[in-house]
UniProtKB/TrEMBL annotation:
The keyword Transferase does not apply. It comes from the Bacteria. This is Putative tricarboxylic transport membrane protein. It holds the Pfam family TctA. Keywords: Membrane, Transmembrane, Transmembrane helix. The keyword Iron-sulfur does not apply. Residues 17-436 form the DUF112 domain. The chain crosses the membrane at residues 20-46, 58-79, 106-129, 141-160, 166-185, 197-218, 248-277, 352-375, 387-404, 411-444, 467-488.
């Protein structure tokens, strides 16, 4: 209880409360605009957090994250174009409701389900993160190395269904993070004689280029279809309490699915939403109406995808392992502001942990108010011409990339990362493992070196540690599973002539 009071005291400042409101507003706006999404929203505000205090910076990031996941449902309902991938399942029933003239009711269902899902996930975070952190106190450098490999493989394995490209992208991230001064030996690595490169590739301009600028380049290279016109009356109307009673079990089940999926590295809110929607379509008493404007579909998808926002912080805070690209960027921000996620965070800075819990609760409550009062205003953002929107994104991104260190090299890095990101996306390579690789690189490298010191250079001794061995075995199974599955299918359907 004392820790909770300390956490509440941390956020009870004008700056932090303003950051919560502004972050949520920005997040919902970014979510409403199709094609931007949570990562680009976080990327755009990230550089500005370095001029803020610790708690306001964390509040701003969490507000943008949670708000953007919810915001995608508004455009999914109004124009049948999900603002974020997480809201794709919401469009299946949200848009048919809008066509019936019930866009305001659909937004009411989505807003309430999103807030309830988000609050449920905070409860999961409060209960699970300390337990996981306590267990991880048994970890040495060897277990941390195995955990880093496991996290990297997990994220690569779900990368758009292509493990090979996901692994290559992750390895590229590990390589990029190794550029610069070796802090152990003092040697320069891959700097090609450039003194400026001795500091390495900064995460912020790299992320800005990979996500924000590559999106601008992608849109400039493709012919875009005209935006759908908004032909429905948009407002906000909460469903009656009697409408919730038969859906409480569906809501609880969807929140549970979203929270569980969120704790798994590399899965994300879009996966949770579709799993929950499929389960609702299988078990809902109204399953015959799903896809035709049934609120069950909105409740299932929105409660699940927003339940990810809190639970995805479980591995991030407890183990220092980012669960997705968004938490990878936030992890870097936490470290810069003197907060090092992991087991020690819960023993040395428990007040900060509880402050994060309280911020997440506040963000979800503010999100409800923002959705209720601003539904009509947010739909007007859909009318912004795309060239103007992309210009705004590019200007804000570059200003932010330059403003972190005031170094012109960061602009070059951002442009270079944008070109690399554009090429990777065109080639079907996912960007998420690359960013995760950059974030995990230092931990993996340092843990490997420290582990080898503990075992006197014997890498095979790593496999004598039970926890590390279990993580290595799981990692290996994840790697070979696609091959085993392909062989099984081939054997099953192969018929000798």
């Amino acid at each position: 209880m004392d820790a909770f009071v300390l956490g509440l005291d941390h956020i009870a400042t004008v700056q932090t409360l303003m950051a919560i409101v502004i972050g949520t507003l920005v997040g919902v706006t970014v979510g409403v605009l199709p094609g931007l999404g949570s990562v680009i929203g976080i990327t755009m505000v990230l550089p500005f957090t370095f001029a803020m205090g610790q708690m306001p910076a964390i509040a701003l990031m969490l507000g943008v994250y949670c708000g953007s996941v919810y915001g995608g449902s508004i455009s999914a309902i109004v124009i049948n174009t999900p603002g974020t991938p997480q809201a794709a399942a919401t469009a299946l029933d949200g848009f048919p409701m809008a066509q019936r003239g019930e866009a305001d009711l659909a937004i009411g269902w989505a807003t309430a389900a999103s807030v309830l899902g988000g609050l449920f996930s905070v409860i999961v975070l409060i209960l699970a993160a300390p337990q996981l952190a306590a267990f991880s106190l048994n970890f040495t450098a060897i277990e941390n190395f195995a955990l880093g490999c496991f996290a990297l493989i997990c994220i690569a394995s779900v990368s758009q269904g292509n493990m090979a490209k996901g692994l290559m992208s992750g390895v590229l991230g590990l390589f990029v993070a190794s550029i610069g001064l070796d802090h152990v030996t003092g040697d320069m690595r891959f700097t090609f004689g450039s003194f400026q490169m001795a500091a390495g590739i900064s995460l912020i301009p790299a992320v800005v280029g990979l996500f924000a600028l590559s999106e601008v380049f992608i849109r400039a290279s493709e012919a875009r279809l005209p935006k759908p016109e908004i032909t429905h009356k948009v407002g906000f109307r909460l469903p009656a309490l009697r409408e919730w009673k038969p859906r409480l079990w569906l809501l609880l089940k969807s929140c549970t699915i979203g929270s569980f999926v969120g704790t798994l590295p590399g899965t994300g809110a879009a996966t949770a939403a579709f799993i929950s929607y499929s389960e609702a379509r299988r078990t809902s008493p109204n399953r015959e109406n799903m896809g035709k404007g049934e609120p069950d579909g909105i409740v299932a998808s929105e409660s699940a995808n927003n339940a990810v926002t809190g639970s995805v912080m479980v591995p991030t805070l407890a183990l220092g392992i980012p669960g997705d690209p968004v938490t990878a960027v936030m992890l870097g921000t936490l470290i810069v502001h003197g907060v090092t996620p992991g087991p020690r965070l819960f023993s040395e800075n428990i007040d900060i942990v509880y402050a994060i819990f309280v911020i997440l609760i506040a963000v979800n409550l503010v999100m409800f108010v923002v959705g209720a009062l601003g539904a009509q205003a947010f739909t007007r953002a859909l009318r912004i011409p795309e060239p103007l929107l992309m210009t705004m994104v590019m200007v804000v991104a570059l200003l932010g990339a330059y403003g972190v260190r005031g170094n012109a090299l960061d602009l070059i890095i951002a442009f270079g990362a944008g070109i690399v990101g554009f090429a990777l996306r065109k080639g079907g390579f996912p960007l998420a493992p690359l960013v995760i690789g950059m974030v995990l690189s230092q931990m993996i490298e340092n843990s490997l070196r420290q582990g080898l010191l503990l075992t006197r250079g014997d890498f095979f001794a790593f496999f004598e540690r039970p926890i590390a061995l279990a993580l290595f075995v799981i990692t290996f199974l994840i790697l070979v599973w696609p091959l085993l599955r392909a062989l099984w299918v081939r054997r099953r359907y192969w018929k000798p002539s």
